[in-house]
C-alpha cells in the first residue's frame, strides 16, 4: 500500500506513485497560527490511515525512507563537481510549525579557480544522455524529461557555456508532499518522492536518486541524477553511522543516516535570464544523507570530504569530452580502475554536538582501502569534562575544528580548516519551524586525517594512514558547518 505524507502532519494512503501527477482533491483546511502555511487532506477514507503503531516506531528498516511519526525530517545532498565546486540541495519539513514549516535549499558554490564546471564538455546533453541508463518509475511534476528537454533547446552549433556564477536560494513553500511505496524486495530500500509544488522534487528508488528543480521566476533549472551509490556498510546495505544505536532512534532528539558516502552525479544547471544565462553540464560525486527527530540541537558541527585529486580539466568518469559517453557501468568501471591505479577512494564525515544538557555526542566515519572505521557513543561522547575517548576543539571565528576520537584499538586525529569568509548561512529545523541563519556552512574546507592503531589497550599507537581530503589541486573543496551556539560571528574589528 502506498503512503502519502503531507508535511504538516497528515498522512494519506491509497495513491500510487504513477498517479501522483493527478491533482489531489482539497478537503478541509486545518487552521494554523501562520497565515502563509496551510494544510490539506484529500478526500480519502481516514480509516485507511493507520496510527503510529509500535511496529512503525521500532522496526523500520530503511531509515532513509520517511519517518512519519517524527517532528521533522530533512534530506541533504552535496555534490562536488569536477573542478571542486559544490551543488547543494536540501528538502526539509517540520510538522505543526508556527512558521516556515517547509524548506528547500539550492545553492552552487564555485571552486574559486575562475574555471567553470563545463570546461571539458563539448556539447549540451540531450534527454537521452541524462536518462539513458536510469529507470525512474516515480513520476512527479515537474518531470525530469521536461528539465532535460528545456536545457537541450540550445543548438549544438551555438552552444558556448559560460562559467556558472555562485547562487543560493532558500525557499519556504506552503506545502511539501511525500509519496512512498513498498520496497521492491523484502529488506530493500523504499522508493519515494518528495515534491515542493512550484519548486521541484526529489525521486528516490533503490538504485538512483533524482532531483528536478524548476523555478521560472528565479530563472533557475537544476537536474541532478545520482547512482552507483557507495553504501555506508556494503555488508549491511541499510546500515548507517548510528549502528546499533538506531534501535533507540525513536527516543533520540536527533538521528543521522548516510545513504551514500560517494555516488556518481550527473548534473545539468541553467541559471539567469535568456541572453546572459549560465549553463553547466557534467558529472561529479555526491554525499547523500538525512536527519530526523524532534529538532536540531542547540549547537553542532558537521563536516564531509572526498579524496584529494589532481587539479584542472579532470574527466573523473571517463567522458573524454562527450557527455554520457558509454554506458553508466562502463564509466563506473573506468573510474574504479583509475582509482585502483592511483590511490584508493577516501571519504570522511562527522556530525555531532550538544545531544543533551552537559552531554556532547558525535558520529564519525572514515573510509579508505585500509580503514573502514566508525566511531559512535559510548566512545565518541563527552559527559561534562569526562571524555576519555573524545577530544573536540572548535573555533568558528577561525574556521577550525580539531578532533581526536578513539576506542581501545583505533584512533583518528582530524584537523578541519576553512577560511571564515567562505561560510554562508542556511536555515535549520527547530521545533517552531526553520530558523534562517541558524547554520553556517563552507564548501572550501580542507581535512587532514591521521589514522592509528595499536595491538592492545595501553599499547603504543602506530600510524597506518595519513592524508589530506577535500582538495582538488590547490583548491580546498571539503564541507564544514557550524550550527547554533557553535557558530560565533567574526568581529570585523579583530
From TrEMBL:
Superkingdom field: Eukaryota
- Renumbered to this chain, region (Disordered) spans 114-134, 317-340
Q: Which InterPro entries match?
A: Tocopherol_cyclase (IPR025893)
GO molecular function ontology, one term from the record: tocopherol cyclase activity
Task: Report what the protein is called.
Answer: Uncharacterized protein
Q: Which organism is this protein's natural source?
A: Polyporus arcularius HHB13444
